[in-house]
Structure formats: structure tokens, C-alpha cells
Design goal:
The chain is mainly alpha-helical. 58% of the residues lie in helices and 0% in strands. The chain has seven helices and no strands. It starts with a helix and ends in a 28-residue tail after the last helix.
């Protein structure tokens, strides 16, 4: 059991390391369509650097962005730790052909859910998370003052 677990751990660490070297320094101007696209991108690349870049750039709706990269990051088996763990237990899950035949509804559900989210809540962009001095703000909650240093 341990060798299989170790193999999965090494694989996951390799994916995260490769994804963290993503050569992207700036995203397109924020919009609902770009956020939808980030969900598909995060299915292949690690969603943590993508989310950090989007929040640093500003102009994204946090809730929509969280849905997009969270759901999108799990669309393909290697996009999440849980997916990697399950595919190690069930190797047939790693087949692209099986995913296209039996998993196409996941991408459809992502798009439908994204549309429902935007229809019900709309797009409410937020500024970048920095104060006037360019320093990072500790608290991101609206109406809460950042912690003093």
C-alpha cells in the first residue's frame, strides 16, 4: 500500500511543481467570460497561482472566481488531490477516452452552473487587494479595517 501512496504523492507534487512554473504574469482584463475561461485553464494548471494572479490584478468578482477555479480545478482527474487519489485506486479513471465517454457531463455542469450563478447573482467586480501604499491588505472582508502591523 505504501509504494502506491508514495507514487501518487510524487505524481501530485510533480503536477503542482510544474503548474507553479506557469509562465503567466498577467491575465486578460477581468470579465465573467474570462473567469469562465480560468475555470477551464485551472482544470489543467494549478488553480492557486491563477487565483492569486486574478486577485492581485483585481476586477474579478470573488464569488464567481472561486466557483470557476474551484469547480474548474476538479474537472479533470489530475486537477485535484482527490482526483489523483481516486485515480490511483481506479486506474481506468486516467483514460481520456473514458473521461470523454463518461465524464463530459462534468464540463457541461460547470458551464450551466456558471450561467446560473451569473444569472442569479450577477457580476460584481472587486478592486485589487492593496492599499494606497501598495502593501497587501490583511482583511479582505468588506467594511473590516486591515490589521495594524
Amino acid at each position: 500500500m505504501l509504494p502506491e501512496t508514495f507514487k501518487g504523492t510524487i505524481f501530485l507534487l510533480s503536477l503542482v511543481t510544474c503548474a507553479s512554473m506557469m509562465p503567466v504574469e498577467k491575465l486578460p482584463p477581468a470579465s465573467a467570460l474570462v473567469a469562465l475561461g480560468l475555470g477551464f485553464v485551472s482544470a489543467v494548471f494549478d488553480n492557486i497561482p491563477l487565483t492569486a494572479l486574478a486577485l492581485k490584478q483585481g476586477g474579478y468578482d470573488w464569488g464567481v472566481l472561486a466557483y470557476a477555479v474551484g469547480f474548474g480545478g476538479s474537472m479533470i482527474w489530475f486537477g485535484s488531490s482527490a482526483g489523483v487519489a481516486l485515480s490511483n485506486m481506479y486506474p481506468e479513471a486516467k483514460s481520456v477516452g473514458n473521461w470523454l465517454r463518461h465524464g463530459w457531463h462534468v464540463a457541461l455542469a460547470y458551464v450551466v452552473g456558471f450561467a446560473v450563478l451569473n444569472f442569479t447573482l450577477g457580476w460584481e467586480p472587486h478592486e485589487a487587494h492593496k492599499n494606497l501604499d501598495g502593501k497587501r491588505i490583511e482583511s479582505l472582508a468588506p467594511g473590516v479595517a486591515p490589521a495594524a502591523h
